[in-house]
Amino acid sequence: MPEQLAFALEVTANGLMAGVLYALVALGFVLIYKASGIFNYAQGVMALFAALTLAGIIDGQVPFSHLINAVLGTDVHHFGWHVPAFLAILLTMVVMIALAYAVQRLVFRHLVGQEPIILFMATIGLAYFLEGVGDLMWGSDIKSMDVGLPQGINAWIDETTFEAFGYGFFIDNLDIVASIIAALLVIGLVMFAQYTKQGRAMRAVADDHQAALSVGVSLNFIWILVWSLAGFVALVAGIMWGTKSGVQFSLSLIALKALPVLMLGGFTSIPGAIVGGLIIGVGEKLFEFLIGAPFLGGATENWFAYMLALIFLVFRPQGLFGEKIIERV
Amino acid sequence: MKDQADGYVTADGRQIGPVVMEMKNITLRFGGVEAIKDISLDIREGEIRAIIGPNGAGKSSMLNVISGFYVPQDGEVWYKGSRRAAMKPFQVAQQGIARTFQNIALFEGMSVLDNVMTGRLTHMETGLFWQSLWKGKAEREETANREVAEKIIDFLEIQAIRKTPVSRLSYGLKKRVELARALAAEPSILLLDEPMAGMNVEEKEDMSRFILDVNDEFGTTIVLIEHDMGVVMDLSDRVVVMDYGKKIGDGTPHEVRNNQDVIDAYLGVAHDD
Amino acid sequence: ELVFPSLSYRTGPYAANGIPFADGYADYFTLLNERDGGIGGEPIRMIECETGYNTEKGVECYESTKGEGALVYQPLSTGITYQLIPKATADGIPVHSMGYGRTSAKDGSVFKNIFNYPANYWDGASVAVKHLLDVNSGSLEGKKIALVYHNSAYGKEPIRTLEELSKKHGFELSLLPVDHPGQEQKSQWLQIRREKPDNVIMYGWGVMNQVAIQEAANIRYPMDQFMGIWWSGSENDVRPAGEKANGYKALTFHNVGDDFPVFDDIQKYVVGTGKAAGAGDQIGTALYNRGLYAAMLAAEAAKTAQGIHNTKAITPAQMRDGMEALEITEAKMTDLGLPGFGPEFSVSCENHGGNGLVAVSQWDAAADSWSLITGYEQSDQDVLTPLIAEDASAFAAESGITPGC
Amino acid sequence: MLDATPTPDAQVETLLEVNNIEVIYNSVILVLKGVSLKVPKGGITALLGGNGAGKTTTLKAVSNLLHSERGEVTKGSIKYRNEPVHSSDPAEMVKRGVVQVMEGRHCFEHLTIEENLLTGAYTRSDGKAAIARDLEMVYDYFPRLRERRKSQAGYTSGGEQQMCAIGRALMSRPETILLDEPSMGLAPQLVEQIFEIVKSVNENEGVTFLLAEQNTNVALRFAHYGYILESGRVVMDGPAADLRENQDVKEFYLGMSDEGRKSFRDVRSYRRRKRWLS
Amino acid sequence: MLYRESGDFSSSYAEDSQTFPIKFDRYRYYFVMFIAIAVIPFLINDYWVNSLFLPFLIYAIAAIGLNILVGYCGQVSLGTGGFMAVGAYACYKLMTSFPDVSMLVHVLLSGLVTAAVGVLFGLPSLRIKGFYLAVATLAAQFFLVWLFNRVPWFYNYSASGQISAPERTFFGINITGANTQAWATYLFCLMFVIFSAYVARNLTRGSVGRKWMAIRDMDIAAEIIGVNPLRAKLTAFAISSFFIGISGALFFAIYLGAVEVGEVFGIQKSFLVLFMIIIGGLGSIFGSFAGAAFLVLLPVVLKIVGVDWLGWPTDIVAHLQLVIVGGLIIVFLIAEPHGLAQLWRVAKEKLRLWPFPH
Ligand SMILES: Nc1ncnc2c1ncn2[C@@H]1O[C@H](COP(=O)(O)OP(=O)(O)OP(=O)(O)O)[C@@H](O)[C@H]1O
Ligand SMILES: Nc1ncnc2c1ncn2[C@@H]1O[C@H](COP(=O)(O)OP(=O)(O)OP(=O)(O)O)[C@@H](O)[C@H]1O
Ligand SMILES: [Mg+2]
Ligand SMILES: [Mg+2]
């Protein structure tokens, strides 16, 4: 049986790592929700868009080449240079900030004070739009994402655990990097939200757009700031997931893995995203290992993550760390 | 004369009945905050009972206890002679207790008429099946209740905005619609939480008129929270004064007005007129 | 005018796979038009319709093109194929689901208008096992084989076959479903790492492939013991894993690379004239070749039909006859500039599925190319024939068809 | 309780000028049909009128909060310090020194009372110390808020929220405050107190007030000048002292007839309302 | 003036609460009905039916169902795909188990089965609200799809795991399978659309509808004025799922004929139907139609314009299509946040004032 135990431990450890990756996506949702009460359906597409842009820039691809070629009959594809990863990340960030600015100017500025469902709707439009633009801009072939992150089994953990348990644990290097980055992100964002005036204003905006306006909080500024931050988080998530699976349309579907995390951690809590991610990661992996695969024929992870979150919610309707839903008359 | 258990007749000839509702030693806490501290009060049938007190005294909380939204940690609620078991708010409403809210709680997405009609919900019982067919039972019921609602709309002079979505109304009109919704329920007890906040004197006069008329015509018992002393003193039969969750006075307007505790805690100065 | 609709998907989750196939399909027809003036002198008109791999759009595409005189449909998605099986049959238009769709459509006595030559999913599974037998000197007794599959109708296809084969050859089969889209496969690969199966077979699609190969590399699963079906065997699937994908195997029913005379023609007549369907960068990739191969088979069937009915402008019904009488020989392929490009096979009324000849290819990461490492081998007909007969007769019973030729 | 303040002399600069504005909601509902007012610097100007008259709408037009309600100023102009402010956004208005206390409180429910107040100081850049000082000042004005400072605003009583909203506006150190029904829901002695605060802020710090108020009695006692709105039009204006003496105002806004104030119970018969228009 | 409201006076409350109190509206409505029932069936062919009318009609039913839940009762659900799958699989099991029973019965029964499942998954809505509930309903979505994929009983143990609709008739006319006539399938679906719209309209204008809307706008206040939230929410879930089940059954049996659950009834479907009602207008029956039409027609129209007329490559058109649909959604929202239905209403209000600006 100790072997089973070791397996379970390994599964748990990997669940934790997977959870961190989910949390990275969930963080983007939390940021925007916290700052505007907008449930940003486009977060997944933003991650895709960021990753596409990064891959395209690194590769020196000509944006919109397909469209240009079709319309002008030219035959351009590449600039013929390769941009170093670091610079490319900076450039991508510039693009994401520009995107944030455009989103604010063209969309949300006109929708201040509307109900959440309507803002949600606008992000749906945005998702369609970005998906189309991303495809037009960079093409829909699979690009590999190589910014020099390590990947593959971590030898040190493998050996150490082998000595300790007689069974070497598999932990992916990429996951370790992701965990470190996620931890840094969360610490940074929590500090930002809790201790800065912008952070407080952000929460105020989420509560009441009008009132925030009335005390002079500039929604424009706050929203551009937050969408840029979310763009940054999307970029990080895009890099991680893109490294794992190549950059392609399906990247936008990782949003689906983030939703149960979000729900469990609470839509408004930055630490909640991480804790939620860890619980979901471990929960779904252990369930698959202990019950799903042996008794239910496997592939239970998707629904189990949601069921787990659902069960939590029945006891805490605002998620683990979410702000309590104020019910008063 | 007020001790007569079966009621009495007021100076202006209204019949006040026996106690219909009695709150016994109610204590309500929220975490560390004690919103209501061991308060008892009774409400007689057909009377206008005012609750006054400084901000945060626990008045609204008391209404919430009556309407079943807050469950007190301690104490009992007696209604019509028997102790009320733990109850959901909607069950309380079905017993004939309707109310308005301090922070307007109208259904913003619906028209004024629909809002008033929601007040009639406790009187409508056609099942899903008949409603889905509409013709027949459902339509008849709708029309009957619509008549009641229209009467109240006329009564409150909001005919002109009948079909307007509530979200487009100004604050004061919303208050009036809220009263209409509560009246539409034809309640036996009507709880009003600052119905006249945000109105000018003329409108307060109208509002007072409505309240008195309801009380007169239907014998509705009314519990009223209001900060306008003029209104309170003129309308109410008895007044409870609360401060920091405690009851510091209870009696006729005249008695209360001259109670030193009340003056200190609430009125500030003895009210001139 | 010969109308060939192309239900392509250049958008959506599977665009990366849809683009090369559609390019290959289109380029071959363009080549025929440019070089030969069509088929038998009759010009070809290809109508492309974007499905996004979405069933409903597929229906729209079918309905909007069928009136144009479409000769044969290549639906390119299992979902759309299932839609079209009854519809196209009723409309008398043949469907060629090449290497996908409903396996039992091989039984032409039941599925009169549906063709799935030269190979189907069950052939794939069988040849995979056969290859493993070869590698393991003829015996799989006591070996463990894991099947990693897309948890959908498509992914579940080989299970029956593999179960039969495991009984026959005495290997142990374990099943590892991966839910759509398959970005997160930690559980499955940890399980593989624990159980250490001797071989892994994969029926994957889309991002699932890339992640699986990546994860296999991460746990250092030997790549040459890992084999995918042809839909898990494109450049797209292995490239994201880089070096580490070296040695990964995939089944295929056509050849790889661009070392065939026909590609010179394509360069000359299609790319050179600026009529290439895509950017031209897909030529010679596994999926491009598959598209080209599908177009070639369609053109050959049309030729056969022209021969049978002695008319140039054939109808869909005549096309169907051509498909049913199709015979692909080495000589023919050499003629077409495609020597050894696919297996030799012939189609008949009873057998719409060809001879079940499948080869194994292997990825060479350094050379960035696939290469065939076996010849075309036939699947285990003893096992498959009864399975197909069973499923086909069930369908016949369900939909009230009297089988017959 | 006679505290009628003298009307500010005529030379005083006009800080805010609203010129014949028309406001339309949702592109169809015409609400203000030409409202003009002038708010002198350092004065307290009251905006009176019945429910739905357009007081709130006027204030929102000034603070530019209309946009978020799909309302629009279609005609006329609004000038602050002689600069048109028609197209600036609310945050800009606050930077210019105009802050609005919204009707119906609008506290940030999930923030504590103290955080609410601090958010009020969002636009300020004069350092933490100054802000802390003003925080103390607000707490001194409203001791009740100090008691509840760590509670989430959503869980405080209606009156406490009203205090919070007013305190929040004070925190921005504005030049002009637009007060929408400040007395609503406050206990009588607090109403007095609030107006005393208004008065002292006005006198000591020179803050200009434009207030919409239903409590005409109090409003006219503290204001210098008043406008009466009805159905989106200004129907009367004048120095507060004059208005208080006006017969109609007395009857319909102060509830007084020649015999003095009458009891609410005695208003037996239905009256047709006095309307200047219609 | 193009649009007259004055001059139409109701003299009774019943008259006032009819669906189209204005005569002009009423006549236009009769006209549309007439066209739909008596003209279109004679004009359409396979293309029109299969690529436009059937999806439009069936999505309209689903949209009406979801609108009851989301638009009227305020419970945001992303489980639509899963519930449609329940309808489809129920229909399949019924069709194959009782081949001689009328399709009408099967479809209605599928609706009932779905209603039951809907109520089950509606239970958490008592505690969970807003977007949390939306995400929670995804649990239903994923679980149901997994279940139908996993348990062979549901697909009658067929080798492929797909379900295919056998041929069935209605009054002797083929309505499922390959040998159907365009008009027959059209009319069969239209019948359910009219039924759904009629029932939904009646329910939403009466006391049930008001209970739903009260819960939507402010659930606590609703409870305090006497609405039993559990009852109201569960009836909304039941009725909504009933319609969604019907649409799922039709989607499978009439429109597609063969279905693979993960692909056809996946999460994308849930989003699609939700988008329809938001674009169309929450809390509006007309909006359900408008939204369904918008999302079914627009891509087809764009495709026809882009590919057939302008001759652009299909992929560029497909991408542009995304950009345009996304852009249009945003433009519409900014013009009128409450959907096409509201846009229509405001347009009418303006027409009424025309030629005066206001
Ligand atoms: N749900 C709650 N959670 C925490 N504290 C609460 C809650 N409801 C009320 N309180 C607190 O209880 C006290 C009494 O509140 P209540 O609303 O009853 O006051 P009130 O007498 O109605 O005052 P006002 O006249 O200002 O409306 C307040 O201090 C308030 O902050
Ligand atoms: N968002 C809106 N959409 C449409 N109409 C509106 C909107 N807000 C207000 N109105 C209308 O504008 C008119 C004036 O409203 P406003 O809120 O300015 O009145 P008010 O004078 O502040 O009244 P109160 O004393 O009741 O607050 C009212 O008739 C109201 O119905
Ligand atoms: Mg209160
Ligand atoms: Mg107002």
Automatic annotation (TrEMBL), chain A:
Family of the protein in this entry: Belongs to the binding-protein-dependent transport system permease family. LivHM subfamily.
Listed name of the protein: Amino acid/amide ABC transporter membrane protein 1, HAAT family
Localization, UniProt: Cell membrane
UniProt-recorded Gene Ontology molecular function terms: transmembrane transporter activity
Segments crossing the lipid bilayer: 12-33, 45-64, 84-103, 110-130, 176-196, 217-241, 261-282, 289-315
UniProt keyword list: Amino-acid transport, Cell membrane, Membrane, Transmembrane, Transmembrane helix, Transport
CDD domains to which the protein is assigned, alphabetical: TM_PBP1_LivH_like (cd06582)
GO biological process, one term: amino acid transport
Organism: Sulfitobacter marinus
Family matches, as Pfam families: BPD_transp_2
PANTHER family to which the protein is assigned, alphabetical: ABC TRANSPORTER PERMEASE PROTEIN, BRANCHED-CHAIN AMINO ACID TRANSPORT SYSTEM PERMEASE PROTEIN LIVH
InterPro entries: ABC_transp_permease, BCAA_transport_permease
Source species taxonomy: Bacteria, Pseudomonadati, Pseudomonadota, Alphaproteobacteria, Rhodobacterales
Record bears the keyword DNA damage: no
Automatic annotation (TrEMBL), chain B:
Keywords recorded for this protein, A-Z: ATP-binding, Nucleotide-binding, Transport
Superkingdom field: Bacteria
The UniProt record lists the keyword Lipoprotein: no
Pfam families per record: ABC_tran (PF00005), BCA_ABC_TP_C (PF12399)
Entries under InterPro entries matching the protein: AAA+_ATPase, ABC_AA/LPS_Transport, ABC_transporter-like_ATP-bd, BCA_ABC_TP_C, P-loop_NTPase
GO terms, molecular function: ATP binding; ATP hydrolysis activity
Domain ABC transporter per the UniProt entry, residue ranges: 21-269
Keyword ATP-binding tagged: yes
PROSITE patterns: ABC_TRANSPORTER_2
Gene Ontology cellular component annotations, sorted alphabetically: plasma membrane
Protein name: Amino acid/amide ABC transporter ATP-binding protein 1, HAAT family
From TrEMBL, chain D:
Nucleotide-binding keyword on record: yes
GO biological process, one term: L-amino acid transport
InterPro entries: AAA+_ATPase (IPR003593), ABC_transporter-like_ATP-bd (IPR003439), BCAA_Transport_ATP-bd_LivF (IPR052156), P-loop_NTPase (IPR027417)
SUPFAM superfamilies for this protein: P-loop containing nucleoside triphosphate hydrolases (SSF52540)
Keywords: Amino-acid transport, ATP-binding, Nucleotide-binding, Transport
GO molecular function: ATP binding; ATP hydrolysis activity; branched-chain amino acid transmembrane transporter activity
Gene3D superfamilies, sorted: P-loop containing nucleotide triphosphate hydrolases (3.40.50.300)
Chain ranges of the ABC transporter domain: 16-256
Pfam family, one: ABC_tran
Keyword Transport: yes
Family assignment from sequence similarity: Belongs to the ABC transporter superfamily.
Name by which UniProt lists this protein: Amino acid/amide ABC transporter ATP-binding protein 2, HAAT family
Species per Swiss-Prot/TrEMBL record: Sulfitobacter marinus
Organism taxonomic ancestry: Bacteria, Pseudomonadati, Pseudomonadota, Alphaproteobacteria, Rhodobacterales
From TrEMBL, chain E:
Protein's membrane topology: Multi-pass membrane protein
Entry GO terms, CC: plasma membrane
Subcellular localization: Cell membrane
InterPro entries: ABC_transp_permease, LivM-like
GO molecular function term, any single one: branched-chain amino acid transmembrane transporter activity
Membrane-spanning intervals of the chain: 27-44, 50-69, 101-123, 130-148, 183-200, 236-259, 271-296, 316-335
Domain of life: Bacteria
Keywords assigned by UniProt, alphabetized: Cell membrane, Membrane, Transmembrane, Transmembrane helix
Key word Cytoplasm present: no
Name assigned to this protein: Amino acid/amide ABC transporter membrane protein 2, HAAT family
